[in-house]
Amino acid sequence: MEALKAMVRQPAALFGLIVVALVVFLAVAAPLIAPYSPDEQMFDGLTLEGAPLPPSAQFLLGTDTLGRDLFSRLLYGARTSLVIGLVANGIAVTIGLLIGILSGYMRGIVGGALMRFTDLMMAFPALLLAIVLAALLRPSLWIVAMVIALVNWVQVARIVYTETRGLVERDFILAERSLGAGHGRILFHHILPHLIPTAIVWGTLGIATTVLLEATLSFLGIGVQPPTPSWGNIIFESQSYFQAAPWLVFIPGAVILLTALSFNLVGDALRDILDPTQRGRG
Amino acid sequence: MVFLLLRRLVQTALILLGVAAITFLLLYALPADPARMIAGRSATAQTVANIRRELGLDQPLLVQFWSYLQGLFQGDLGRSYAQKTDVGALIAARLPATLILMAAGIAVEVVLGVFLGVLAAVRRGGFVDRFVMMASFVGVSAPQFVAALLLLYVFAVTLAWFPMSGFGTPAHVVLPALTLGVLGAGWYARMVRSAMIDVLNQDYVRTARAKGLSSARIIFRHALPNALLPIIAMIGIDIGQFMSGVVVVEAVYGWPGIGQLAWQAIQQVDIPIIMGVTLVSALAIVLGNLLADILAPLVDPRIRAR
User: Fold this and answer.
1) What is the model's pLDDT at position A259?
2) I want to staple B297 with a disulfide (CB 3.0 to 4.6 A). Which of A31, B90, B209, B303 is the partner?
3) How many domains are there within chain A?
4) What is the predicted pLDDT for the residue at A62?
């Protein structure tokens, strides 16, 4: 509640919050709002020459190359993006938290090995890896989510590792240990709660990264497969038409930008609010 | 310093070894079968088996990996399945185009970023300052391919100032470099801005002002060099990111670099090329970080003293 109040006071964060709420609402209510079915190829959705229609009163944002309503497809595409955003990022944050905590808490071989592994993953060309995996795996929505999770957990692990290392050195952990608390109790009752702000911040910022990555993979034709609409594959399907029908590329593009931007703004504001030491930094 | 460098070199070699191992495992664990890809849809099981034997794909995984590593230590990246040529030579032929693109993109980023960052820091709270803060977020939130298509639409289709795609003249490099550079410039500006604000608040800047030096001289001669350190670290990180992201930009602009090479190879399940490009990208990431670590003490004596 406090966080919400603090956010409403910053114009940029408020803007982000409103857009995020709007996107979530539109995605959930897509069947109620969409004027047409997203997959329906309409007879009057193309010109007599078979070209897509520009935005008009009948088709708010125009139609695509198959005569489908772009507005309806974007609404359903929001579902795809948000589902992938939540699933992929949920998995990434969970893996990151787990590996970060364990490598930060455990001394010796296990902790060291986990951290070396994380370092190794940092040197991996993430986007290239995602493209290779997605292309060779016959992508479906869930595969795309898994691929994104697989390349996105590394950053979270790094940050959680640093924070855990700092926490382990603190006196209250030492006190707890001398009182006889076991590892499980220290990890889950004393360290994990301190990491929740980090998880929330990265849970939010990560959705922006995920939405962008999904769009990029789909744009290359190796993300979510048509006919399931996704913001990326809408652009993929019409990119060769973009000179004649620019709205088919730039309206979804603007939607992707706005959504990613809003999650970034909200995440950044959350970081300021939840972690006062970061306030005003770069 | 020499000891440190040696240690970093060993680390680099280990990391590359790890990247090679993971990529190798991943590629061979995937369901895509290169032998079937080469043989084509209508090939008999016998043909596929022959090709598999010819490529050594019938060997146990560890044996395959060991022979790949042996080649790697001799600088041999293997042979492409589809193009039947040396992967090292293929990458070497494509690398210059990618490096040109990378250099141009980073140049755009640094020039725009430093310029806007200094302006924002000098006039805090002003128009440029607010613009920089917003642009840095928009830059990291914009999908690269949409920016690429937008630049194409405005400057190649509508205004026809630059060619749509291809490679060869300086005009060809402008739009791809802008795509890579403009989006990142906001974040550079943000870094320069916060570093500049720190520096401008220091005593020696006040002394310079008290001596009556001109603002321009203080900003560019006294303050800016001290604010450039974060930029060096960022360029180091950027080199790696460029290598990883270059597939998308090269695909949109038909730029004949290693990104395009990788993209074709991915579609043909040409594993040696995918391995090679992944390793080159990983090398770029590691070298980028190494470069930043080496340059930082050269630029900033305070780090050298530590």
Assistant:
1) 93
2) B303
3) 1
4) 77
Question: Which domain range does residue B184 map to?
Answer: 91-303
* B160 shares a domain with B267: yes
Q: What is the block-wise mean pLDDT of chain A (282 residues), using blocks of 10 residues?
A: 74 88 88 78 70 74 77 88 91 92 84 84 84 82 88 88 85 84 83 87 90 89 84 84 82 91 90 66 42
Closest-CA distance of chain A to residue B301, Å: 23
Nearest to A215 among B143, B245, B251 (CB): B143
Domain end among B52, B76, B100: B76
State residue A262's pLDDT score: 93
The 3-state secondary structure of chain A reads CHHHHHHHCCHHHHHHHHHHHHHHHHHHCHHHHCCCCCCCCCHHHECCCCCECCCCCCCCCCECCCCCEHHHHHHHHHHHHHHHHHHHHHHHHHHHHHHHHHHHHCCHHHHHHHHHHHHHHHCCCHHHHHHHHHHHCCCCHHHHHHHHHHHHHHHHHHHHHHHHHHHHCCHHHHHHHHCCCCHHHHHHHHHHHHHHHHHHHHHHHHHHHHHHHHHHHHHCCCCCCCCCCCHHHHHHHHHHHCCCCCHHHHHHHHHHHHHHHHHHHHHHHHHHHHCHHHCCCC
> Which chain A positions have a beta carbon within 8 Å of B190's beta carbon?
282
Same structural domain for residues B200 and B234?
Answer: yes
Name the domain count of chain B.
2
| This prediction's pTM | 0.85
Same domain, yes or no, for B276 and B191? yes
Residues B138 and B22 placed together within one structural domain of the fold: no
Residues of chain B scoring pLDDT < 50: none
CA distance A276 to chain B (A): 17
What pLDDT is attached to residue A94?
93
Domain that holds residue A218: 10-26+70-274
B144 and B47 within one domain: no
